[in-house]
Amino acid sequence: MSKLFERLKDLAGPEMAGPSMAFVAVMLIFGIASPQFISAATFGSVAFQLPELGLLTLAMLLPILTGGLNLAITFTANIAGLTLAWVLQSYGGADAGVGALILGVVLALAVGAASGVVMGLVIAFTRAHPILVSLSMMIFLRGLGEFLTRGGDISGFPDFIRPLGHGSLLGIPVPLIVFVLCVLAWHVLLTRTKLGFNTTMIGSNIEAVRYSGINTRKVIVWVYALSGLMCSVAGIIMLARFNSVRVGHGESYLLITVLACFLGGVNPFGGFGRVIPVFVALIVLQLLSSGLNLLGANQHLATAVWGILLVGIMILRWMAGHFKILKNRR
Amino acid sequence: MNNPAGAEGNDKPLLALRHINMTFGGVKALKDVSFEVRPGEVHCLAGENGSGKSTLIKIITGVYRPETGAEITYDGQAYSHMSPVTAQASGIKVIWQDLALFPEMSVAENIAFETMVGGWPRLVNYGRMRNIATDALARLGVSLDVDLPLKSYAIAQRQIVAIARALVGEARVVFMDEPTASLTQSETDYLLDIVRNLSASGVAVVFVSHRLAEVLEISSRITVLRDGALVGVYPADGMTQSRITELMTGKTFDQQVRAKPKQDRPVVLELEGLTRRGQFEDVSLTVRSGETLGITGLLGAGRTELALSLFGMLHPTAGRMALDGRPISFSSNREAIAAGIAYLSEDRLSLGLVQPQSIADNLVIASLRKIIAGGLISEDRKRSLVKHWIAELGVKIGLQDDAISTLSGGNQQRVAIAKWLATDPKLLILDAPTVGVDVGARAGIFDIVARLAETGLAIILISDEVPEVYFNADRVLHMKKGRIVGEYDPRQASLAEIEEAVYA
Questions:
Q1: What is the interface size between A and B, counted as CB pairs within 8 Å?
Q2: How would you list the strands of the sheet with B229-235, edge to edge?
Q3: Which residue does chain B place closest to A216, by CA atoms?
Q4: Which residues of B, range 463-492, sit inside 8 Å of A by Cβ?
Q5: What is the pLDDT of residues A245-258, one digit of tens each?
Q6: Residues B407-441: pLDDT tens digits?
Q7: Which ipTM was obtained for this model?
Q8: Best A11, A197, A212, A324 residue to mutate vs chain B (most B CBs within 10 Å)
Q9: Which of the following CATH numbers is that of domain A11-321: 1.10.3470, 1.10.443, 1.10.10, 3.30.2400?
């Protein structure tokens, strides 16, 4: 039993303290404030809303770990969604077959990865700052998307796509299953693969890693490629959830993904961070907004509360660090 | 060589401390330490890292308050403790190792900055600032363009600027913390001249340095601390480097030349006319299995560039390299590592190790393929690989997951060596392996080097400290301005002879 606990602790790491405390606090406060909070309905709504923000956060996580940033995540997701929509439309829209869906998904994933590869190559070879590079890519993709769609929605997809956004498998929403699988994939990537190892090492000191015989350029390109690929997954899920694609969908998630990473204990300067605490942090954010929604609060207020929560966590973390130093001194 | 300057006839101390005790978190940092400085003398404070030198300086400058019972006398007045304001106002100045200067601001602003803070009216008088700066520099016998930004000057000149800043207002004792750590030999000579001028003008200088040669050259007296306790105060006259080392570490090091004949061993590395334009030229050498080849020379002699060319990170423009008789040329250090060449960087802090990351991760980074099982990193293999090397090289660590930055310089260097040994190299290039390593721990590093050579590893040992290569290498090459200008056999040449050639 204690071994299992150790193993769980090992899985999550010390970064887990903040997010799990926030989780308990949110459950307690809303559980007391509203009797309906701890109910299947709440968890249903969380389960369906979590994946979009969650998948985009995973896309943001890898670049942050290398000490970079990918500001193009939401528009990469849009462009990937557009790719899929375009394939479906050209195979008859609502009458398109499963073959068209598979082709569309493959192309969508390829488009997202390609956007990442381009950013990765530019960052790795020119050493330009990732913020500038990804900002350029974001503007390019937004312009391209708006040009192609004339700023409108694209809809009219075959019915069998609906379950991807709204269906359940054994009572678990399909988007949630996709998200959890992606979380596990990222967890394995970061803790057990050479690429993941090098990703975090690069975040601390890229030159020292290069001197150790690691092809740091290749790692950077892979990191942004995988980030783009994860954006595509988010884009496909968004298409299925809204049954339409519009450039600008999910734009407001961009900075929230960064904050979710920090809430999950990821070092803003790179080098340190784990997937599982970020996953819990995402659940906290979603529970918070569902809880406020249930109490009848305005949705914009929920966003404001997210901001307060994050500032609060930073202060708590500082206090915890301070306390530790004082304790060590004694 | 003793320093004739300074008012040695005046024995009345300017600053005297007695019964200084200081405890941090249950650890006694200073145990009943006494220390005194006479007016105008150059006094060296010697001790290993953690011996209490910095704590003592911080007590003198009022940063820390000593435990009760302390007696501090300065300029005839008694204090129970100093405060930063009194220390500063009464002429006790410190130049910390990091200098604390502003690279973007002008020399004048850097020097006169403090006199400009807090005055009224809150306006900056550039004319006055320039005058203050020029005066301070003139006192040092130096002229710099005070309007240029500081960053346009080399590190040695910045050091001068930091000293000039300390001299603004009244300075009677100046503490210098490792002032020569990042200077070349000629820059160091320049700085030592400045210190002599200061001393001659009646300012006492307390010099903290690892480099014992210059300590002996410049100071008139030496106070040695070990583990927070005073070992003694000694006149520099008649002192030797090995005697100071013994006093600092409490151990005797009978340094003996380790060189042995290795001509019958197979050649591992052979260079013929290797050239990289502008950095080194026509370098030919061989290193045999089990042989340690020392390369010495001043900073900027092209040693590191040569090493990086062997390691595939720089590309030679002419010449030939062969490893085990086969010609080699690398387009990256990955190829060099795969071929069996390892390079321990001279810059452990920013290139040698990934400082914030764990001991374990730093140790395995260059040999990840060894801990991969079924495509994934095996935590068990990683742990056992790390455990093996920690034991093999006697590294003292807490947990494998502790950050490497928590280790002492000597232990960090052992991990860095282990990281390369884990790649199974044929040739190990050690570039300044004792930089930032305590005197006591250096011997341990060289014991490891000797043991590795016995296993048949070919080693190139690069250092700008001639004694290091003299005692620890089988052959010594002298590199100057990118060329090899001399070869010595330590069993035949004397240390003085090589030092004369290198430092002249």
A1: 64
A2: B77-79, B71-74, B15-24, B27-37, B229-235, B221-226, B42-46, B204-208, B173-177, B92-95
A3: B334
A4: none
A5: 888 888 888 988 99
A6: 888 899 999 999 999 999 999 999 999 887 877 78
A7: 0.85
A8: A212
A9: 1.10.3470
